[in-house]
Amino acid sequence: MFDVATILAQLSIDEKIRLLCGKDAWHLHGIERLDIPAITLTDGPHGVRLSESQALDDSAQPATVFPVEAAMAASWNAPLLEQVAAAIGDECQSMGVGVLLGPGVNGKRTPLGGRNFEYFSEDPFLSGAMASAFVRGIQSQGVGACLKHFAGNEQETRRFLINAQIDERTLQELYIEPFAKVLRENPPWTMMGAYNAVNGVHACQSSELLQRILRDQLGFDGLIMSDWVAVKDKVESHANGLDLEMPGPAERDAQLLAALADGRLSEANLDNRAGRVLTLIKQVMEQDRTVSIEWPAHHELATQLAVESMVLLKNESQQLPLSAHQRLAVIGDFARNPRFQGGGSSHMQPRQLSNTLSAIEHRVGVVFAEGYTETRVSPQQLDAAVKAASEADRVVLLTGTTDSMESEGFDRADMQLAPDHLMLISAVADANPNITLVLHTGSAIETRQFERQVPAIIQAWLPGEGGGEALARILFGEANPSGKLSETFPLRLENNPTFETFPGTKDTVDYREGIFTGYRYYDTKLLPVQYPFGHGLNYSQFTLADLSYHDEQRQVSFSITNQGPAEGAEVVQLYIHDETSTYHRPVHELKAFQKIHLVPGEKRTVTLALDDHAFAYFVPHLGRFAEESGRFELRLGFSSRDIRLTSWVTIDSDTDVRLLPTLDDTVKDWLADSRTAPILQQELDRLQFEPGHPMYGIALGFPIPQLIQFIPQMGYEQNEADKTRKTLERGWQHLISRTQGF
Ligand code: BGC
Known about the structure:
Layout: H1 4-10, H2 13-19, E1 41-42, H3 69-75, H4 78-94, E2 99-100, H5 124-139, E3 144-150, E4 163-165, H6 168-185, E5 190-193, E6 197-198, E7 201-202, H7 207-217, E8 223-225, H8 234-239, H9 253-261, H10 267-287, H11 295-309, E9 311-315, E10 328-331, H12 356-361, E11 366-369, H13 379-390, E12 394-400, H14 419-431, E13 435-440, E14 456-459, H15 467-475, E15 489-490, E16 508-510, H16 518-525, E17 529-531, E18 542-550, E19 555-562, E20 568-578, E21 589-598, E22 603-609, E23 617-619, E24 624-626, E25 630-639, E26 642-651, H17 667-672, H18 677-686, H19 696-700, H20 704-710, H21 718-738
Parallel strand pairs: 1-2, 2-3, 3-5, 4-6, 4-16, 5-8, 10-11, 10-12, 12-13, 13-14
Antiparallel strand pairs: 6-7, 9-14, 15-17, 18-19, 19-22, 20-21, 20-25, 23-24, 25-26
Helix pairs in contact: 1-10, 2-10, 3-11, 4-5, 4-11, 5-6, 11-15, 13-14, 20-21
């Protein structure tokens, strides 16, 4: 295998520059005279979309289509996801793909995000954990992952132009953290810069993002590529940290030559970037191998993940599981033409597409009515659906979004199903109240319009090529549902904290809701939601007991028992609540979870390890994550609103996060801080200025200089005021020298 430095030394400036941009949409430049091949990159993230064309047509080679990322996260099964990603890695190897363009770990500020289906979760811990498993799985097969889109790409509206205005704490805690967690645990070979700007600078040319955060803070050492046609100023991009512009062919090489000539770009910089491209090519070459794929096994893996991701939102009057003796009506074109993936760059060609109708017919006889074509319901379709429903014991109605409602490239207009679908649901439920509604959407929708009429709902996401079979297994109780919401279903769009600010003005979207998104917002505000984060029912019953915390190892342990009739899995979620903090925090945050599979009657003791960020938050004035001493409540449960066990722990931190009150702050500030309080209190005692004094309440709001001015008016000589001023100044000087200036 070649040595990067040796090759670099043999390259001309032109050859090095050529390496900095793709050869075409899906290949890098090789160097023929040195036998360096043109490696292949392709989309991602939920399978391999290998196409010769840039167009998003159906020319891609067939490969296994796994559930979309939102569904992957709803499985809360990181080991299974690792297995899935390894299978994707194998398929990449068999198709000659060296880097898969995924996973995506952008956030979900609002359910309207057009690519929410392609991202894991509203929670950075869950996103990071699932992405980390994904990267580990794919790279275990010698294929590079590409973590995308760095950063602040939380919307599709004007994504090439919009400036995401995000304060440092929000950026770090919510939008960088999923990337950071992956980088700490399983660094990807590559990362992709986003289209948008962050705080005024385009992501692919931002030294703040690429150099300060990605390289210096997070220590990323792999290759940074641009999103497709995201580079605005080529020279600025490479000067500020971008290694590779995609796609090719390059049209602006002359600009780099000019920049080298006039010193805007150094040769060392060029060598650094070209060296990273060569390192990636070398990694791909070294790990390249011949693989033959067990396609049926991959299809089954896709089916298993789909099973584990489907969320039983409600199941009143034991609608589910269905029994083979019931007369069943299946309604909805999605049962025949599955809605199994989203639109845009992740759109794939499946190898073997299962559909719900055949999967059910394989088990029982059914009456089928198509119900709708895309978003429209014709009078004939409505009549046939109502007739089928009224003659059945049980009805399964499949609905959801279409590509015209939810896709890469634009954000959703609202959170609702198509009006015709709502009308169909209502008419069918009127005809037969024993109805199970199946939702094929990539993101949260409003369900309040039909909640009263529909006793059972399954959130089936965009479940990939095994979705039909997976749904049948769940409907008939062959599999016990175990998916949990990876995002909150709010009651209505208006309750979302970005309702007033999304998708921003023409130029800017202001992340004004800060760190309060998803359940961090709804739970802190005590707002009712339709279905909380982490929610999902099953056909059994699990209980938790024996919560304990092991200080030394930073572990939480508990026991879980399956007390119900069915074998199944529960996802135990640990949220941490900070009793008091210098900066405002959400009421609780997810910090650990595990999916546990148990047969009926089985009991197991489980230990969850907490990572360095479990009690910490990003402290703006320190510029890093830090723990603050104090009491924290461990909240263990089955959703963010279904906490079963709690326990308080005390954390002693070396870091004092508190900002020392300054000599211009108020009397109240000084008295509230245990460091300044004794100094001031001693003076107040000396002056006999006590709570009973008529001016005491007002004086609490006085800044320290005003308090000192006020002393003579309390009947003291001026020298008493001077004495107080000196004592406070001396005491404060002493403190500030011990607190590194904070
Ligand atoms: C998307 C990326 C994708 C790339 C290549 C872009 O439009 O934002 O996620 O990997 O195209 O298809």
